[in-house]
Amino acid sequence: MGFRDLHAHNLALLAKQGWRFLCNPTSLVARLYGAKYFSQGDIWSSVLTSSPSACWRGIYSSLPLLRSDIRWQVGNGATIHAWDDPWIPRHVTFRPVIRMDGGTLWVKVYLCFPDSLGMSTWCESGGGTSAFWKSIWFANVPGKIKVHFWKVCSSILPTNSQLCSRRVPILDGCFFCNVEEETIMHVSCECPFVKDLLNYFPSLGIVQTLHMVHGSVRDWLALCLGNLTKMDASLFLILVWFVWKERNKRLWNGRFASLDQLAFQVTSFYHLHMSVQAHSRRVVGRRNIQWTPPSPGWLKANCVGIYDASSHSGGGIVVVLKNSSGSILGGVCSKVRWVSNLQTVEVLACRAACNLVDRFGLAPVAFESDFQRVVTTINSQGVNISLLGRVYEDIFTMLGSLHDSYFSYISRTANKVANMLPRFALGSDFDLYWSGFVPTEISGFIATLCTN
Ligand SMILES: [Zn+2]
Question: What spacing in Å lies between the alpha carbon of 179 and ligand 1's midpoint?
Answer without folding.
Answer: 6
